[in-house]
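Quick one, tokens below. Sequence please?
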């Protein structure tokens, strides 16, 4: 079996990236405008909790009456370009070690530069045969597109049934590729851990940690 992993909330906690980015933005607005960094952090976390990611920096800058489009763009670029202080989850470290002799891939959506910085910070490149950041192949090839998964099948010169994908988001991670024969495992982590969308969106198997990804689960997956 070829093992393919999602990145965010599968191998590390995405919230830790957000925290790391907000910290850099708090430092930036402290240096640039003299804002108290603790208060700036509070505003960003409050807005994220209340309304999601969309307008976090707008709200921060408006709170201090220094809002402008270009000031928002500057905060966004500080956030996106920063070198994140993030770590692989302990179960991910154990899992990647357990399967060190397997051919492994990553398929992840998201901003190219951001995802590349995460991969670098997590030290994943030497552990993987290839890492697919879907947006490098055009937005239309982001998940739920099967494009990158079909590329893996080509590279491995194998059929979809021999490739497993382990990921956390039932909205986009399983539905299409499962129809094409790829094997899927849902890990209940992060913001989607409680989401139930019905059988069409579910993976073949569901696990709570990567410690449950064992040779015997892979055997079951082969029969699934
Ligand atoms: Mg994910």
């Amino acid at each position: 079996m070829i093992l393919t992993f999602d990145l965010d909330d599968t191998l590390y906690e995405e919230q830790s990236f957000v925290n790391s980015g907000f910290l850099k933005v708090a430092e930036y607005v402290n240096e640039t405008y003299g804002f108290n960094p603790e208060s700036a952090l509070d505003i960003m976390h409050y807005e994220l909790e209340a309304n999601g990611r969309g307008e976090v920096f707008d709200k921060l800058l408006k709170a201090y009456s220094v809002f402008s489009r270009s000031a928002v763009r500057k905060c966004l670029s500080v956030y996106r370009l920063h070198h994140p202080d993030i770590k692989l989850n302990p179960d991910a470290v154990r899992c990647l070690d357990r399967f060190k002799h397997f051919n492994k891939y990553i398929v992840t959506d998201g901003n190219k530069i951001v995802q590349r910085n995460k991969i670098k910070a997590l030290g994943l490149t030497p552990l993987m045969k290839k890492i697919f950041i879907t947006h490098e192949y055009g937005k239309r090839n982001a998940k739920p597109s099967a494009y990158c998964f079909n590329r893996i099948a080509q590279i491995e010169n194998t059929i979809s049934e021999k490739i497993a994908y382990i990921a956390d988001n039932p909205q986009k991670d399983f539905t299409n590729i499962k129809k094409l024969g790829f094997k899927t495992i849902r890990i209940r982590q992060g913001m989607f851990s409680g989401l139930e969308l019905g059988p069409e969106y579910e993976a073949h198997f569901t696990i709570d940690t990567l410690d449950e990804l064992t040779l015997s689960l892979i055997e079951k997956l082969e029969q699934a």
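Strands lie at 2-5, 104-108, 130-133, 163-167, 183-187, 205-207. Residues 110 and 214 are 28 Å apart (CA to CA).
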